[in-house]
Amino acid sequence: MPAYPKLAVAGLCLVAGSQVAVAADPAPALLNPTPASGWIVTLGGSGQIGPKYDGAKAYGPSGTPSLSWRRVGEPEGFSAPDEGLDFALYETSRFSMGVVGDLKSGRYSGSDRKLFGMRDVPWTIEAGAFAEFWPIEDRLRTRIEVRQGFHGHHGIVADIFVDWVQPIGRFTLSGGPRLSFGNQAYMRRNFGVTPEESQANGILAAYSPSGGVKSAGLAAALEYAWSDVWKTTAYARYDRLLQDAARSPIVRTIGARDQFSFGLSTTYSFKIGG
């Protein structure tokens, strides 16, 4: 209740010779509400059609789960479908940095008879760090990820992302250029052919690539918010293999420099705690 009616009531009571106890004003509690508590957890999954391995001509399906979380009241941040799963250790409205991880499918000789004699490259966990900066807040984002491979390969990879983010009602359209790098250990594991493999295969010539730029490309995504909790995203990416990756016999002889991928993902958000 506003203050002035209380003063009016007190004045009338004094005129009548009455004594009235006026309750403490609850306004300060309303002006300083208790901060929201708890977490918003977002679970999701995606299905994708893409090359069976780096440089492959043949395509196949794959799927990955996703998980993210934020505090209640914290705005939902932007993430592109082709970036790694991250956790920010330092964050402002325009800059963030932290740890990142990704899971990469491998290359198996059973997926293509032309890979006969080639050693398998098993699935790989890649873990490292990311940094993200918004030159134009909420519209233009730049991001870099540097990751070390474990299990399938033990090389170092780096990916650069640039995205323009444009909300259109319930839709959000985003996309921009991509640039990928790999060090020598990564390139030799994924694009190299040893003399022993060349002799066993009979098609692929021996090849020992160096580190450097792996590919350049473009990515785009269109997200639709069905409600506050359900969202669906359709996305596509194109990469052109470059330099030593493009010169690999795995690409030139039995594969393709142009790599396309298409996917569809759905997420569901819910609150816990608080």
Polypeptide structure, described:
- With 274 residues, this protein is of the alpha+beta class.
- Helices cover 15% and strands 49% of the residues.
- The protein has helices at 3-15, 27-31, 184-191, 195-201, 243-247, 249-252; strands spanning 39-51, 59-71, 85-91, 95-104, 124-136, 140-151, 156-168, 171-182, 212-225, 230-241, 258-272.
- The protein has an eleven-stranded antiparallel β-sheet with strand order 2-1-11-10-9-8-7-6-5-4-3.
- Strand 3 (85-91) and strand 4 (95-104) form a beta hairpin.
- The model is unreliable at 1-32 (pLDDT under 50).
| DSSP strand tally | 11
Strand order, main sheet: write it out.
Answer: 2-1-11-10-9-8-7-6-5-4-3
The average pLDDT score comes to: 88
Tally of individual helices? 6
What characteristics describe this protein?
about 50% strand, single chain, 6 helices, about 270 residues, alpha+beta, 11 strands
Short description:
The chain is of the alpha+beta class. The chain has helices spanning 3-15, 27-31, 184-191, 195-201, 243-247, 249-252, and strands at 39-51, 59-71, 85-91, 95-104, 124-136, 140-151, 156-168, 171-182, 212-225, 230-241, 258-272.
Task: Give the secondary structure arrangement, pairings included.
Blueprint: H1 3-15, H2 27-31, E1 39-51, E2 59-71, E3 85-91, E4 95-104, E5 124-136, E6 140-151, E7 156-168, E8 171-182, H3 184-191, H4 195-201, E9 212-225, E10 230-241, H5 243-247, H6 249-252, E11 258-272
Antiparallel strand pairs: 1-2, 1-11, 3-4, 4-5, 5-6, 6-7, 7-8, 8-9, 9-10, 10-11
